[in-house]
Amino acid sequence: MSDQSPFSYVTAATVLLVACLLVAAVAPGAVAGGFIADDSETDDTDLADTVTADSAAAEPASTDPAAVDSRSAPGSDAVAPGLRSANGTVEVVVRFGSDARLGADGGGADGSGGSATLSANDLKTNAANAQADFETFAERKPGVAVERSFWLANAMLVTVDTESVAVERLLEVRGVERVHENFEVELDSTATDGDGGSRAVGPAGPPSAPASGAVSSVSTSSTGTDATYGVDMVRAPEVWEVFGTRGEGATVAVIDTGVDPNPPDLNVSGWAEYDAEGNLTSDNLSVIDTGVDPNHPDLNVSGWAEYDAEGNLTSDNLSDATDGNGHGTHVAGTVAGGNASGTAIGVAPNASLHGIKVFDDDGTNATFARVTAGMEHATQDPDVDVLQMSLGADGYVPSYIEPVRNARSAGKIVVVSSGNSGQGTSSSPGNVYDSLAVGAVDDSRSVADFSGGEMINTSNAWKNDAPADWPNEYAVPDISAPGVSVGSSLPGDKYGYKSGTSMAAPHVSGVAALVLSASTRKISDDELYDTLRDTANHPANATDPDDRYGTGIVDGYAAVSSVAPLYRASNFTAPELAERGEPLNATVDVTNDGEVAGDNRTVEFRLVDPGNASNVSVVAAENVSLGSGNTKTLSLNGTVPSAFGTGETTVTVASPEDAASAPIRIADAVGTINGSVTDAETDAPLAGIDVVVEDGTEVVGATVTGTEGTYAVDVPATELTVAASNATYAPANQTVALTGSGDTATANFSLALRNGTLTGTVGASDGLDHPSNATVTVRNETGEVVAAIDAAGDGTYATELRPGTYDATADAPDFENRRTADVAVSPNATASEDFALTPRPASLSGTVTNGTDGGAISGATVTIGGDRTATTDANGTYALDALDRGEREITVSADGYARESRTLTLAANDTRDLNVSLSPRGVFIITNLSGDTEIEQGSSGSFGLAVQNDGRVTDDASVDISLNRSGSVSPDPVSIDGVAVGDSESKSFSVSLGSSAPTGTYAVTAATPDSEKTHTFVAVGGSGGSRSTDGGGGGGDGGGDGGGGDDGGGGGGGGGGGQPSPPADDTDDEPENATDEPENVTDEPENVTDEPENVTDEPENVTDEPTNETNEPVGDGPADGGDENNSGESGDDDAGEATDGGSEGDGGADGGGSADGAPGFGPAVGAVAVLAAALLVGRRRGRGGGE
């Protein structure tokens, strides 16, 4: 017998019920919203951080994604969780607390230009001191072996036999701060081969199907250079042209998959490769990537070395260098590729490239140790200025803070991709504050969807690992650059397209190289960092960095302009002729248009040898210091080299960024020709006359006469031809001879004015054809004819005339002439004068006769052009004069004759004869039209007509019949054949009306070309009685809707008043009115069906009623409404049916109803049911216990 009371069972059941309800309520949210943990956020797994090269849309890494979570990063625990339970021999990275940074800020960049600087040797010394105790420990402790020591990150790569030494034991060694795995760095690289989309997708590994030949995605820059859109967007071609730099003297270390050293677009000067333990396996080419293909024609590889996993040198043979992946070669091409394909692919094509391989050819086996070793190699190289790293791991990886900050301390700028997981994300080391993170934009300057970016709260993201000098919050990326479908080099003399922030970062590294190259002073890493950020162009003109663009899109021209002076040369003057071995002097204005001052910058005065264009001599030079915006006028004095050839050449003044040039002639000896020029008619001196001196066909000197008409010009001493002329005066020439240096000759000229030209067109005033054989006669001021010109077929004419004033007259046969006075003709100028001659009028005459007997027709009318008429006389003759020329329509008509028409073309002054014969015809006059005066709808009426022939011949009559309202006529037309002259003939016709024809008055009209008559009749209703076409009323409207609802509906309302009855015989219109009534009837259900809305709104009151099997509530009244009444006269009283006004409700989903029409209560009903069951079970158990 149980000691549990029934109440306890009830209580237990109630508790169980509440728990069930809570689970039911919470479970959907847990499933949908996140009680189930994301598999990428695992906590206690082995640390296997994965860093990816940030090409877009990579496949997930094979290592545990939790490795990049800050919760499992090395800085979050002294020993990484996975190492605590490790068995056997494991490889670990031991980090030391006393690193190589200076002070609290560690020398990291704070964007203010004030970071401390340490050399690589300083960092090495500090690291060696910090690691000394552990080195001693490892030497003495079996099971612990140091594989590699690092100084950029104060760390050691150590192998531990956990059977002999627990990993935690390492923490007991003095100086050890923490221990973590040698987590891998992986490459996610995808070739997009011309894809213009914003996201490249595909598996990791070698690129697919690279294209050979030129890059097809080309933009022509403002300088006219064919370049990839990315090179053009960062304004590199403008830097090349204006500042004359292409990255010379700057070095970029590309830490990536390696570089193909042979593309013609790349000049690689250094190389290094590291294994997974960070041991140097190859060096001399410093591009940090998957390797180098030494056979690629685009690269020039100068050395190679390779080490095994333990750091032993295995090869230093250049032929061993390869890049089996292509990612690094693509990145390197964007940094410093050339234009061997015809398209410029690199931002800084003359910068030096150091390739550092930290990935295998398949894009794997890159570890923290390997990446750090690559960074160390670049940092310790004094030539390297920029570390280019297109790699990263999603999330915040503190392990990268120290190497990035120490590289900055050593004076390097670290350019890193921001990651490819889109907005709200970032990757390490790009999100390390001291790096320069780069996001990706497309060719329309829009941020790519995949581009990583976020506003980072320092304490939340980095916890205690964040250095003290970092701000509380900062934006990633720092800056943006082109990164969608970027064309660049690939191994094997190929080109291809890739997308990702991996492709954006090298654009920024290339711009950094241009800035370093253009500056005349040392640019620190802090200044370079700030310059790139501060000069970026934000499309939205934002003043603060954001998580999409950072500070904006990198602007190479703005960045270089902010650090380099820009010397412009203007107002350059130099002699046009110089003698070998004699002085050569020039002046020029030099202005500094740059934003910074220039100090001791050289301006050169250069002369090209006329006999050898490749031989350029600097005949003078001056060092110029100018503040921003300042100008200085220089006088440059040199000597023409005696060994130079003779002839025309170029003299140039050049600053480092600009040049101004002018032509010059070098001669063995120089003499002078002088003289004066006067007007041949007035003997007045002429200013502004061009004097040209030629040696054969070569112009060797030129000048212009002054205000007194005189000139002097230095020329080579030889026999020469001198010519004088200008636009007003005709040329004249002379021959002179100069025999030696300093000789002088004189050539005076008396010049006549050049002729002018008179031209124009002779046309007609009516706008028709030009007059034929037109002549233009020109007379001078004395009336003398000086020219008579026959106009061409198109009316044009032209003639040369001496300058002066003339009268011109145009005439042509059959046209009135026209004269124009005072036509002015100027020297070497064209005067235009057009003439519009009036055509003389035409005339027309002739005779009109009877076409049957040839007799003259008197009184006939002749009309021409629709407005000029003439009437024939008794002889049938007519005459019309003063007619305009052109095509004319002529009509001739007379009573009793058929009309005739003709078309004539009249010429100017034309006289034409036109005789016309007219054919006699019948003239039919309607003498009578009669018939019925009343026609019923749906019947016909009879009519008759009579016509009389008043014409000249027997003819057939045709009478057209028309009604002014609906109906039909038969026949139409009415034809009467052979009506003799003077006779009358009659004929009948009928008019039929339709049954629905309108009643009222109708008009029937009979008409011939000569006459018409009208008869009226009335249309009346049919034999059933007359009625208006508007008809009578129909039946009454239906009654009101029947009452619905659970309690039964009420009766329908009474019908409306009846409409007048339609005529009995009007069956045609009957359906129209008849069908109108059902329209009113069928409208009523609209009101009926609205009622369930109100009924179903009251389920709480209705559901108290029991339901029957038909799902209708059991009510007091009938299920249907009142009695049905379908009488048309009294109206319908439609019954209120259950389907319209009854209790049938909406579905359970809307009203919570059950299948039988009762409303449901969802979970509440279920709860009640469970509670009832629990109570029942409790009571039964209580009873059972009692038994």
From TrEMBL:
<dbReference type="InterPro" id="IPR023828">
    <property type="entry name" value="Peptidase_S8_Ser-AS"/>
</dbReference>
<feature type="compositionally biased region" description="Gly residues">
    <location>
        <begin position="1142"/>
        <end position="1155"/>
    </location>
</feature>
<protein>
    <submittedName>
        <fullName>Peptidase S8/S53 subtilisin kexin sedolisin</fullName>
    </submittedName>
</protein>
<dbReference type="InterPro" id="IPR013784">
    <property type="entry name" value="Carb-bd-like_fold"/>
</dbReference>
<feature type="compositionally biased region" description="Gly residues">
    <location>
        <begin position="1021"/>
        <end position="1059"/>
    </location>
</feature>
<dbReference type="InterPro" id="IPR022398">
    <property type="entry name" value="Peptidase_S8_His-AS"/>
</dbReference>
<dbReference type="InterPro" id="IPR015500">
    <property type="entry name" value="Peptidase_S8_subtilisin-rel"/>
</dbReference>
<feature type="compositionally biased region" description="Low complexity">
    <location>
        <begin position="210"/>
        <end position="227"/>
    </location>
</feature>
<dbReference type="Pfam" id="PF13620">
    <property type="entry name" value="CarboxypepD_reg"/>
</dbReference>
<keyword id="KW-0720">Serine protease</keyword>
<dbReference type="GO" id="GO:0030246">
    <property type="term" value="F:carbohydrate binding"/>
</dbReference>
<dbReference type="InterPro" id="IPR036852">
    <property type="entry name" value="Peptidase_S8/S53_dom_sf"/>
</dbReference>
<dbReference type="InterPro" id="IPR008969">
    <property type="entry name" value="CarboxyPept-like_regulatory"/>
</dbReference>
<comment type="similarity">
    <text>Belongs to the peptidase S8 family.</text>
</comment>
<feature type="compositionally biased region" description="Acidic residues">
    <location>
        <begin position="1065"/>
        <end position="1107"/>
    </location>
</feature>
<dbReference type="GO" id="GO:0006508">
    <property type="term" value="P:proteolysis"/>
</dbReference>
<feature type="region of interest" description="Disordered">
    <location>
        <begin position="1016"/>
        <end position="1163"/>
    </location>
</feature>
<feature type="active site" description="Charge relay system">
    <location>
        <position position="256"/>
    </location>
</feature>
<dbReference type="Pfam" id="PF00082">
    <property type="entry name" value="Peptidase_S8"/>
</dbReference>
<feature type="active site" description="Charge relay system">
    <location>
        <position position="327"/>
    </location>
</feature>
<keyword id="KW-0378">Hydrolase</keyword>
<feature type="region of interest" description="Disordered">
    <location>
        <begin position="53"/>
        <end position="83"/>
    </location>
</feature>
<feature type="region of interest" description="Disordered">
    <location>
        <begin position="188"/>
        <end position="227"/>
    </location>
</feature>
<dbReference type="InterPro" id="IPR000209">
    <property type="entry name" value="Peptidase_S8/S53_dom"/>
</dbReference>
<dbReference type="InterPro" id="IPR050131">
    <property type="entry name" value="Peptidase_S8_subtilisin-like"/>
</dbReference>
<feature type="compositionally biased region" description="Low complexity">
    <location>
        <begin position="53"/>
        <end position="67"/>
    </location>
</feature>
<keyword id="KW-0645">Protease</keyword>
<dbReference type="GO" id="GO:0004252">
    <property type="term" value="F:serine-type endopeptidase activity"/>
</dbReference>
<feature type="active site" description="Charge relay system">
    <location>
        <position position="502"/>
    </location>
</feature>
<feature type="domain" description="Peptidase S8/S53">
    <location>
        <begin position="285"/>
        <end position="552"/>
    </location>
</feature>
<dbReference type="InterPro" id="IPR023827">
    <property type="entry name" value="Peptidase_S8_Asp-AS"/>
</dbReference>
